[in-house]
């Protein structure tokens, strides 16, 4: 049986994955923790943009900042997230183009 906390977790996870840059950050962090400068370079985004995405992911409870001297290293907040991301990445979706027509912008669609 789902609880309100389960729904909140899924909503936060969905929000995080709804942005391609945040999704790429999560995928990168599933391998190992990383420093923002390295992540920005790896993903080809500005450090300012990455900082905003990391703040969002922290706010959603999906990543944590671990202080290392004067630097912060980011990593997934929970080992279960690594498994969840791997499971999602291995999922094969059958997309129905008729149901997700890009011309129907604004309607509920993937």
Cα separation of the termini: 26 Å
Q: Which CATH class applies here? A: Mainly Alpha
Number of helices: 5
The neighbouring-strand order within the major sheet is 1-2
The largest β sheet comes out as: 2 strands, antiparallel
- Tell me roughly what share of residues is in helical segments: 40-55%
The coarse silhouette is globular
SSE ordering: HHHHEEH
Question: Structural class, from helix and strand content?
Answer: mainly alpha
What is the name of the CATH topology? Arc Repressor Mutant, subunit A
Radius of gyration: 16 Å
CATH superfamily: Winged helix-like DNA-binding domain superfamily/Winged helix DNA-binding domain
Number of strands: 2
**CATH arch. level architecture:** Orthogonal Bundle
- Stretches where pLDDT is under 50 for at least 5 consecutive residues are none
Task: Tell me the strand percentage band.
Answer: 5-15%
Count structural domains: 1
Oligomer: single chain
Protein name: Regulatory protein ArsR
Pfam family, one: HTH_5
Keywords: Plasmid
GO biological process, one term: response to lead ion
Could you name the key traits of this structure?
mainly alpha, two-stranded antiparallel ribbon, 5 helices, about 110 residues, Arc Repressor Mutant, subunit A
């Amino acid at each position: 049986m789902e609880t309100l906390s389960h729904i909140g977790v899924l909503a936060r996870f969905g929000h995080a994955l709804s942005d391609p840059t945040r999704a790429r950050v999560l995928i990168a962090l599933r391998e190992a923790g990383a420093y923002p400068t390295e992540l920005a370079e790896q993903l080809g985004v500005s450090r300012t943009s990455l900082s905003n995405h990391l703040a969002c992911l922290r706010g959603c409870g999906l990543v944590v900042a671990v202080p290392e001297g004067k630097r912060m290293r980011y990593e997934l907040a929970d080992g279960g997230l690594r498994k969840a991301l791997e499971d999602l990445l291995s999922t094969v979706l059958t997309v129905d183009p008729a149901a997700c027509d890009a011309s129907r912008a604004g309607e509920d669609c993937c």
